[in-house]
Amino acid sequence: MDPLSLRENVSDTYVRFRDSDIYYSFRRSPLTIVAAVITVVFVGAAVFAPWVAPHHPFDLTTIDLLDAFTPPVWAEGGDSRFLLGTDDQGRDMLSTIMFGARISLGVGFASVIFAMVIGVSLGLLSGYVGGTTDSIIMRIADIQLSFPAILIALLIDGVVRGILPRDMHDEVAVYVLIFAIGVSGWVQYARTVRGSTMVEKNKEYVQAARVMGVMPWLIMLRHVLPNAMGPVLVIGTIHLAVAIITEATLSFLGVGVPPTSPSLGTLIRVGNDFLFSGEWWITVFPGIGLAVLVLAVNLLGDWLRDALNPKLR
Amino acid sequence: MIAFIIRRLLQSVAVMLVVGLIAFSLFRYVGNPVDNLVGQDTTLEERIALKEGLGLNDPFFVQFGRFVVNATQGDFGFSYRHRRPVEYLIAERMPATLELSAVAALMALLIGIPMGVYTGLRRDGVLSKVFMALSLIGVSLPTFLIGILLILLFGVVLRWLPTFGRGEVVDIGWWSTGLLTTSGIKALLMPAFTLALFQMTLIMRLVRSEMLEVLRTDYIKFARARGLSNRAINFGHALKNTLVPVITITGLQLGSIIAFAIITESVFQWPGMGLLFIQAISEVDIPVMAAYLCMIAFFFVVINLIVDLLYYAVDPRLRVDVGSRGGLG
């Protein structure tokens, strides 16, 4: 492709984006713009934490115990090197929060994708095949839905910890969390995809594909799935907020990410011990970070839901 | 009707059996039950004898059957860590959790309903906007964070309320209650509010949307035409008709309150079942985990069963297609 047509292509896509309904409703909602900016800042800070963080909190050569418990800059005794103060080991809070957000967001995204893959596959299968397969999958979904997701995640986490030898817990903690949160969240995806699959499978293009002899799994993936993806993305965004909260909660309860590579939840747990001795910043700043992140993602999810499909409410 | 009840009961029993199977497999195959009962100096022969004595060599279904029979009698064996029968541990902790949950549910209703009515009646009022914004924050903030912030404000800065434990408790038979002493009530305030907040916002939003819907209906217009006072219309006619879904949702949420009590109890070091469970998870104390799992599942199954049966009794439309509806919520 020569550069000129590439440029035309790009500008074409840009024009289509600029004139789209989604962009219009985005521009019209200041709250959504703020939420999007906050989310982008968080994701950016998390992804580029090793390069943009003012300190490297887990590099033992750069931290100094003498800096421990420095309050934030504006408080009495603050140090201009540490904007939000330091924790009990002299690590810069701002940097630990950036590295913590990295793990929180990483676990959040990974478990959303995991839940999405399980849920979408089972939903497609359930809706397309129907019959006994459908009723088994949906019965399991019903049962799982009658328990709160966090309880299911907690139980899976507990069971996996029981199966694995104790000294492996810390190493695999992140993967266990992704698995637990993912499995606890697949039902919503499966139900939605099953619904749209049942509608789509009776349409003419699917019948045409079937007549042409396309394999069932190929029909599901190539023909049905693209038409069922819209609501899945909305659920995914809202689920991301839930997944981040669940991760933080499990880590706070002490059955999540270990303190050696803390997520926001672990940071809050660790800082909680210093709350009573007056070092409030060690727990409050990660807490604010978590709250703002979750609120922003929630607002984005709400907006996306309304923008993509007003009927979905 | 009878066919539906039997069907629904069978489904509940099936769920309990599945949960029981999970709990049993956990108990039997995760870790070694014998190693957790004996000391290091027990000889191999003694271990084998103990294994035979405990029936661990029996076929799977015989063992599972025994587990189910014991479980229905409340016998879950010994806790690995506490070296005491699990049922005693749970019975000891149960009053604390149930008291906390009941007070939280009550708080959610008593604050949530008036807030919902107010925001429903004065949609554009400043206070309504404030309530709605607060409810968004209440839904977004994780429970434990709200607990920590409350502790910081009322426990550390203002020093008004105790930050952990139950305060003084009074024993009434086997039930220990904190509701009869001042320190007990003071200790209850923050955990109960933390636990109630999420349900409170849920109830508020529900009442609000139901009120908006009911206020548009004809019978409200006729009530106005009859010249009834606003008060009589809003509370006598409108609110009354919003309460059915509110009661249903609150009923369904009772189970969630007990489950979420795990988090609240952990924040406030409240000596309830949830704290016991969390400690059991981090220490891999499997009998306690299995017992808690069975108990909470039983709770959920019973609540869902009652709600489903009530629905069936209240709403005749459901009787047409019974099969398509599973456990809601």
Q: What does this protein structure show overall?
A:
The complex is a heterodimer of chains A (313) and B (329). By secondary structure, chain A is mainly alpha-helical. Chain A is built from 13 helices and no strands. Chain A has a single domain, classed as Orthogonal Bundle (MetI-like fold). In chain A, α5 runs parallel beside α9 (186-200) and α9 packs antiparallel against α11. The model of chain A has no long low-confidence stretch (mean pLDDT 84). Chain B is built from 11 helices and 2 strands, in the order ααααααββααααα. In chain B, β1 (170-172) and β2 form a beta hairpin. Chain B has 329 residues and is an all-alpha fold.
Spell out the blueprint of helices and strands.
The complex is a heterodimer of chains A (313) and B (329).
Chain A: H1 3-18, H2 21-27, H3 30-47, H4 49-52, H5 93-129, H6 131-145, H7 149-163, H8 169-184, H9 186-200, H10 204-211, H11 216-252, H12 264-272, H13 281-308
Chain B: H1 2-29, H2 44-53, H3 60-72, H4 86-121, H5 126-140, H6 143-157, E1 170-172, E2 175-177, H7 182-215, H8 218-225, H9 230-268, H10 273-282, H11 286-314
Helix pairs in contact in B: 1-11, 4-5, 4-7, 4-9, 5-7, 6-7, 6-9, 7-9, 9-10, 9-11, 10-11
